[in-house]
Amino acid sequence: MIELEGVPELIDPVMVAAFEGWNDAGDAASGAVAHLDREWKGEVFAALDAEDYYDFQVNRPTVFLEHGVRKITWPTTRLSVVRIGGAKPRDLVLVRGIEPSMRWRSFCNELLGFAHELGVEMVVILGALLGDTPHTRPVPVSGVTSDPDLARTMDLEETKYEGPTGIVGVLQEACTHAGVPAVSLWAAVPHYVSQPPNPKATLALLNRLEDLIDIRIPLGELPEDARAWQLGVDQLAAEDSEVAEYVQTLEEARDTADLPEASGDAIAREFERYLRRRDPSAADPSDGSYLRDTSGGPRAPKRKPEPPAEEPPTPEEPGDDSPEG
User: Fold this and answer.
1) Does residue 244 carry a pLDDT above 60?
2) Separation CA 161–CA 40 (nearest Å)
């Protein structure tokens, strides 16, 4: 355990968390937190004790050599802090780890203990699920919360999901019971191209996070990686007539469902994001088989154009109609 000593007093801190595993289709959510940590040069200040929460036969430690000395890296969850510069500086507490194997309530209580000591004002948990969404269209991202007041003031969905859940759902409910405002952002990843990484879904989560907490995130090479990813999937899909036909069907369904989104509000949101990115004072970037569904991660409902308000159960087949969340 790394102690909290040495952590400076934080400015309007928001905790942003993501966990590898069932809640992280295409590694989109963990990739988003890793991007924040890398771009703002996060400094680790705490790590949860791996012995308390992980089954090492499920998440095995790794051995590596450092200057000829063998060392072991244990699977765990680490916390780091980054400071966002600009006209209105603020801090992010980044939580990145693996979905725990056991003692989930204690795991959440320990994270909330850190949040309380650091004065965290809100917790944002990132997740990604498998859905019937075409890779050629913008990635759907849903923002959900268990707090009716937060849903109203921040234009979020109030979660109504019932069914199996993962650590994202458990942590969100723990925050609610502790009186800590909490939001989950879910990106839908095409189930027919579920293998990581998925930079397009990672980019969509970061864009939605920008809007949610009013910051500017330096994106680096991520937009170009997202374009290259889509081009690669385009080429692979074109080689299989059945996949190409299926993608076209998904496109038609998505376009029909999204017609109401071609509204003034949607255009205004995109224009505001564009203006923020033109403003250099908004933030200081120097701070701080491929088309097969082989993932066991959560799936979005087949007939709903947007991902659900919680994590879904493990899918049986790409086209199944099992409930999700």
Assistant:
1) yes
2) 35
